Amino acid sequence: MKIDFWGHEFKVNMWVGCLGGFLIAIMSSMFGFGGGPFMVPLMTVALGLPMYIVVGSSLLAIFFNTAMGTMRHMQFGNFDLYLFLAMFPAALLGGYLGPQIAKRVSPLVVKRIACGGLLLLALNLLGVY
Amino acid sequence: MKVKFRVWPFLALAMMALPIVPQALAGEGATPPTVILDKATLANGGEITVSGQAPAGAQVYIEFYSADKKVRANRFDSKKDPKTGIIPYKFYLTQEMPAFYQILVPKELAPELDKAKAEGKDWKYSEVLKTIGADAAYSAPAKIKIDSYQATIMASIIGSRGNLLAPMDDKESRRESMKLVKGRFGSVGKLLAANVETSPDGAYHAKIKVPAGQAPGKYSVIVTAVTERSKEGDLVIVKKVKSEAATFENTVSFPTMYLNSAGTSINLIWPFLLCLGISIFGVLMGAGGGFILNPILVSLFPLPHTIVAGTVMPTVLFSQGSGIFNYSKIKFINWKLGVGIGCAMLVGGFIGPKLTEMITLDQFKFAFGWILMVLAGLMFWQTTPGYLAKNKKEQAILKEFKKRAEECAQKGEEDTTACPTKQK
User: Fold this and answer.
1) Distance between CA atoms of B258 and B281, rounded to whole angstroms?
2) What is the mean pLDDT of residues A99-123?
3) Model pTM?
4) What end-to-end distance do the CA atoms of chain A give, in Å?
5) Which residues of A fall within a CB distance of 8 Å from B121?
């Protein structure tokens, strides 16, 4: 499929994109997270698209998954209103404060810390310690 | 015809008498235990001393449970039956599981419980109940209504629970209820405690411990005294007397709230702070917070993984929506690409939530562990020099395009060479 973006034309293999998106969607809706960190590499590496197309379009694709996943979770009775009401304002506030702090810290340092933290959390979940 | 009419009343009388006879026999000589609680209310958990008088020489078991708060519990049976070799693929679901359940057993049985604890996650609730004789006291969850479904691969793909099977008989239902109880509460320590002390004359006392973060409302306490156990072949015949239900009240107050679908209470300040910290960190590292939030929530709090997954997901819906709105204002979204992949993700999002309830909490944590490993790998890859050099260029282009896009959006120009805002 050919897509046109800001005067540039790109060829996209939609089979790879859709299959990857499908699998990521199953995983992320099953475990209840967004899926952005997997979608962005899929679209940049597997589909070979430049970052400036990916940022907006991946968000749009993920939104479909989140909306559908939310509906299905509610249908199965997996939604808790009070817990949601406690976390929802925090997520909004975080989304507002985050970019302000982001200006003052190096993304490289954050990523290194995140990498270590994720590894520790993963090992904990796998029962290593 | 005349003879038949004369027989009827006798037959009816005999049938009415039948259930009364064994009851009279069982109750003979044994008076039900008395139950005295030293407190009537608890504030978000605590200890209550139970004491009373049971028949001399009896073994005393104390069952206590949340009487008016019920939660959902489910189990997916995909274990091969060792006898027939058939995998059942059955899905069991109840809405009536007590939000809290525990049986206290005689102190002398503590070593048996330790043995069960040493078995780790694969311990069998029904077997432990049998060996310590606590199945005599197991009653409240045995009466819950359990639906069973025959799951098929096709049904799972279209996101259905499968065909509803005929209701199970009492015995099957009781056996399945034990598995659901284990799936819901998990560990030996949460379901059983050995602290009932009995003196030879039958006076007993024990401590009921309700941990913090449990359901508020009425709790029932039922004392079962087993007066005699005898074996007839394989069959164990138990003579027991049950007390009337004594009740106490557990209260929780704001900011601790009872979560209806989770079946536990939680101080809402914690998820708020956790979510705030993690979503800020999520913005910094360029990934959503759900990855970190979900495993921490299931590890730190007694929340079922289904509730966590189902509640965290909608929280990001709004920020995603506002992100899309902002990008679309500056025409920075390729709708064809986004909607194309989005349709595939729509299908995936339809299937995923069904799978959440088919796995246990331990499987959830295990799978999440591997997902995080992959994510950590991705994060590491993004800190390698090669990626950084490439990313620097990409980010510069991204910034340039964004600037142009913003300018174009401000000017409101359309379809010029500098601002090709109309996309096909």
Assistant:
1) 28
2) 86
3) 0.82
4) 48
5) none
